[in-house]
UniProtKB/TrEMBL annotation:
Record family assignment: Belongs to the 4-oxalocrotonate tautomerase family.
Enzyme Commission no: 5.3.2.-
InterPro entries xref list: 4-OT, 4-OT-like_dom, Tautomerase/MIF_sf
Signal sequence bounds: none
Source organism, top-level taxon: Bacteria
Species whose genome carries this gene: Paraburkholderia sabiae
Name the record gives this protein: Tautomerase
């Protein structure tokens, strides 16, 4: 019985959204479940997928809060 946990920051990926949409979550669940079926022969009904949304202020990257890291990275690129 595989259990897969996906952690994402709570932010929208499209204009007007502030979180991962229900449709996006459904796609993640389906895709991960099918991957485990295809690679490890784990039945869909035995696979559990948990999606955890984390507030951006609770997510760090490169020693910085994610927004600061992204800003620094963007400045370095351009």
């Amino acid at each position: 019985m595989p259990i897969v946990t996906i952690q994402v920051t709570r932010e929208g990926n499209k204009p007007g959204t502030s979180a991962v949409t229900a449709e996006e979550k459904a796609q993640l669940i389906k895709g991960v479940s099918e991957l485990l079926l295809n690679v490890l022969n784990k039945p869909l009904e035995a696979t559990f997928v948990v999606i955890e949304e984390v507030e951006k202020e609770n997510w760090g990257w490169g020693g910085l809060p994610v927004d600061e890291y992204r800003k620094l990275r963007a400045e370095k690129k351009g």
